[in-house]
Amino acid sequence: MNFPKGSMQAQREVFGNTLLELVNTDPRVVVLDGDLANSTRSEIVAKARPDKFLMMGIAEQNMAGVAAGLATVGLIPWCVSFACFLTNRDLDQVRVVVAQPKLNVKLAAGYSGILTGKTGKTHQDVSDLSVMRAIPYMTVIAPADAVEVYQAMYAANAHKGPVYLRLTRDPSPVLFDESYRFQIGKAVVMRQGDDVSLISTGVQTWRALEAAELLARERISASVLHVPTLKPLDTDAIVAAARHTGYVVTAEDHTILGGLGAAVAETLGEHLPTPMRRVGMRDVFGESAPNDELLEKYGLTPRHLAEAARELLKTRKGKQTRSGKGAR
Predict the structure, then answer these.
(1) Is the bond preceding residue 27 a cis peptide, omega within 30 degrees?
(2) pTM of the model
(3) pLDDT tens track for 88-98
């Protein structure tokens, strides 16, 4: 698929079309949907390959059990629903019948985070990464853009074992070009900088890049490290980013409790204690509102990320930044 860099692409559309590719190229792939096919876009498979599509109804618990059974006979089931349902409603089944026996089931979680088309807090999930990170044997992926969704889906399909794939609803910028190669467990340096490291995941990475631009106007040099795989975590890349600048700000469309910020804090606490700030949802649920208003209220805009970096750098007031300019 061709996704021009800088264009706006919806992850759910890329997901639906890529899922059809997988169905057509890998006879083991079968799709199970929790009665949300027109929203998650798994209906693309339902229309083109109804023989590979199972409508499971509003019953994610049963869907997980059926998927486990299909995996035991050599198939690769992709379970599709909203993140809030796929993470929570069937959690016991995912834990016991999918993760414990390490079955080859893929969990495709659409409508993650707070930007879910004004569905409100009941349909928003800002703790899914925390939950899935804690489940043994689960691989957890949060792609940044259309290119990464496409490649991550092929990587997930090839990976033997349970995978949780976090997807967003609305269009977001394409950050990668055709030369990019996604690897499970590998972080990506998106921008080099010397004063502060912005470490982000999912679509929040493009906002981290925007924040780096804002900081550059103030002669603050920020690096941006994109972490598409929350588990397994690229510990080496995180430690290297922290060591280079000495200051870290994490960014995620997710709670700071147990998500990327927590994972980075855990890593640095063990390997390289580093001053840091976590930008994300602060122990609250979301609500129904336009995207820009939600990002503003919950402090997830590029401006908020830049402000967190500025506040962090004030802790070394009077010292020179590595770029040679005084911290403000």
Answers:
(1) no
(2) 0.94
(3) 999 999 999 99
